[in-house]
Amino acid sequence: MSLDLSRPLVYLITAGDCEAANYPTQSKRIIEGAKRAADAGVDLFQIREKQLSADLLFEITQRVAEVFRRSQTRLLVNDRLDIALTAGAGGVHLTSASAPVKMIREHSPEGFLIGASCHSVNDVVEARRDGADFALFGPVFASPGKGNGVGLNALNKACGSEIPVLGIGGIDASNYRDVLDAGTAGFAAIRSLNDADSMRRIMEGLGR
Fold first, then answer.
1. What's the whole-number mean pLDDT along residues 133-156?
2. Could you read off the pLDDT of 99-116 as tens digits, one per residue?
3. CA distance 31 to 37
4. Could you give the percent of the chain with pLDDT greater than 90?
5. What is the rounded distance in angstroms from the CA atom of residue 102 to the CA atom of residue 168?
6. Is the separation of the CB atoms in 156 and 182 below 8 Å?
7. Looking at residue 91, what DSSP letter applies?
8. Element (H, E) at 105
9. How far apart are CA 142 and CA 62, in angstroms?
10. Domain span at 156
């Protein structure tokens, strides 16, 4: 299944604070967030929980996949192709520390989504060449842990490549329109889309 580019793509990334010690409570929050995302019409939902063991990551991925089974929301897993395929996710997101996009594409079924983190125009060009379905480009704005943003001009230049580009980094209800106006196919966020009120404002602003 390819991406629906007829409307801006909204991409929610989980907060990354789930670990073995808090798994019962934090996994419940992830499930609740997945249900909100499906109801709101979020297009892509990425599980980015690096502190979880493979067993727990598999379990939460299975549970979220079940939430999305009757919705249009596509589920991706950060980095772990094996868990994505076996737990029922529809794609993976890859960073510079992940296996190469080309290798993951060679081992993925038809219709499986691959997203790639990109920080330069060259990164975006390489992601397209190697078989990624879309690029996450940023950080666009200043964001905790990511430093200063690259800005909207750099984002606009990245969008000149023949691959859907989504902005990421510091995007919220006050600036997502600027990101879309830069030529992106959509945007990704952690904080603003995991907060129920903020997500509601964004989705209502998009007419969903």
1. 93
2. 999 999 999 999 999 999
3. 10
4. 96
5. 23
6. yes
7. E
8. helix 101-106
9. 33
10. 9-205
Give the CATH number of the domain where residue 161 resides. 3.20.20.70
Q: How many Cβ atoms sit within 10 Å of the Cβ of residue 25?
A: 9
1 lies in a domain? no
Cα(first)–Cα(last) distance of the chain, in Å?
A: 21
Q: How many Cβ atoms are within 10 Å of 198's Cβ, its own excluded? A: 16
CA nearest neighbour of 166 among 124, 130, 198: 124
Q: How confident is the model at residue 143 (pLDDT cuts 50, 70, 90)?
A: confident
The mean pLDDT value of the chain amounts to 97
Could you count the other beta carbons within 10 Å of the beta carbon of residue 125?
17
56 within domain boundaries: yes
- Which DSSP symbol is given to 37? H
What total number of domains does the chain contain? 1
Is residue 2, in this structure, part of any structural domain at all?
Answer: no
Burial (CB count within 10 angstroms: exposed 0-12, middle 13-18, buried 19+), residue 55:
exposed
How many C-alpha atoms does 153 have within 13 Å on its Cβ side? Answer: 0
If you count them, how many residues does the chain have?
208
Q: Summarize pLDDT for 151-194 with one digit per residue, the tens.
A: 999 999 999 999 999 999 999 999 999 999 999 999 999 999 99
